[in-house]
Design goal:
homodimer; alpha/beta; 7 helices; 10 strands; about 30% helix; globular; binds adenosine-5'-triphosphate; binds magnesium ion
């Protein structure tokens, strides 16, 4: 599903050069459930942005479902992302002038879903995440954890083949965090490939494989036995 | 230091009314170290915004260091906040067009600190938080946890009497989170009153008193024995 080879990313401006990712080689098979941990600044979000087709690598290759993404122009890059990937951003990235409902509906536009169907599905997913009373609130009228759940709803809504979630429980109390993880586990049982970044070990333990990053490299890669 | 009586906050727009805080009565003495936990949406940030003089209550009273804040006009409200309180926002709230260094320096302007002194102190605090190589990066050139640490630096820089921190370790790996907590404990030993919201119990256990919130009320208030 995901095959990266020597994937590297260096950010550089006039003032500095930051080698955020230093040549990562990694295979993730369809249906896997992977957690990524590592110190702040170790390159986790950078890696997720490359996997999520939100950015281009400086070096190395990325085959997504067999397709070499470096051959795609920007439009095809975006189209592939919208079709295959649901992304939960570390900073949520909701549109501040749209309500929770409209933020989620918007991400269904690309899939060409009809209006009534979009509304119905968006209400379902937001309800699943406990937000049925907050559909018409704007991001600044929602708590941190409510905003995070809207971001999660937006990622799930198109039933993507891959979910990439960057700290999806960072703003949630433990109980709500566990509810999110059982939703992810259910989606994974139905075949969705899941890669999530987390700094909490009890969250990481809901996955079946834990990668540890440090200074732009993967320093550990461990299958975990499921109870 | 903090005395609130029947403090309430209801958000209402044309479309809805949300009673986010339903009458909280609470005393926090100078030098206390308090943690606040509770489900997503239970009113923690709302309470912190009222304590931090970032918002006004719908009902009830707030005495800060003996002063009834309801008597203050908006300018005096802001001036008291800048003098007494260091606030770490759940969403960091950094200015996107200023570097890490300038974001921190800016919050020293109100205190009337001289330019060289501001620069020197800002570099010190950012270095203490591990950001010495990121001083001149903008928020979009920093990782989530680096942005959170800039927000923390900004709250500490004026040596405030009270630190209010809303999920200050939410975006940090466990190791960095523990480093932040030892900094807070050191400040508390020096007399700073600290109130922090967290959903992680091992972080809450660095405090000496844990308040639990649910549905806009405090439902538990427990001193914890320190080892
Ligand atoms: N400006 C607003 N207008 C309307 N409702 C609001 C507004 N701000 C917050 N709320 C609502 O008030 C309730 C309490 O919000 P608050 O941000 O205090 O929760 P919280 O405990 O900090 O949650 P979290 O743990 O998710 O950050 C939530 O249900 C939220 O939807
Ligand atoms: N646009 C950018 N320009 C320059 N440097 C950047 C940029 N984005 C990220 N960086 C740097 O690259 C490194 C890796 O960042 P990244 O966001 O991937 O870390 P992370 O592992 O997600 O950290 P966190 O756990 O704090 O979210 C960091 O040191 C960061 O300062
Ligand atoms: Mg990150
Ligand atoms: Mg909050």
């Amino acid at each position: 599903m995901i095959k990266i080879n020597n994937l590297s990313k260096t950010y550089s401006t006039g003032a500095f050069t930051v080698p955020a990712l230093k040549g990562i080689t990694l295979d993730i098979a369809p249906g896997e459930f992977v957690a990524i941990t590592g110190a702040s600044g170790s390159g986790k979000s950078t890696m997720m942005n490359l996997l999520g087709l939100l950015d281009r690598p400086s070096e190395g290759s990325y085959l997504l479902d067999g397709m070499d993404v470096s051959n795609l122009n920007d439009d095809d890059y975006a189209r592939l992302r919208n079709r295959k990937i649901g992304f939960v951003f570390q900073a949520f990235n909701l549109l501040p002038r749209l309500t929770a409902l409209k933020n989620v509906e918007l991400s269904m536009l690309y899939a060409g879903t009809k209006h009534e169907e979009r509304r119905k599905r968006a209400v379902e997913v937001l309800t699943l995440l406990g937000l049925e009373d907050r559909l018409h609130h704007f991001p600044n009228e929602l708590s941190g954890g409510q905003n995070q759940r809207v971001a999660i709803a937006r990622a799930l809504i198109n039933n993507p083949a891959i979910i990439l979630a960057d700290e999806p429980t960072g703003a949630l109390d433990s109980q709500t965090g566990l509810e999110i993880m059982s939703i992810f586990q259910e989606l994974n049982r139905q075949g969705t490939t899941i890669v999530l970044v987390t700094h909490e070990l009890n969250i990481a333990r809901h996955s079946r494989r834990i990668l540890r990053m440090a200074d732009g490299l993967i320093i550990n890669d461990e299958e975990i036995a499921r109870p």
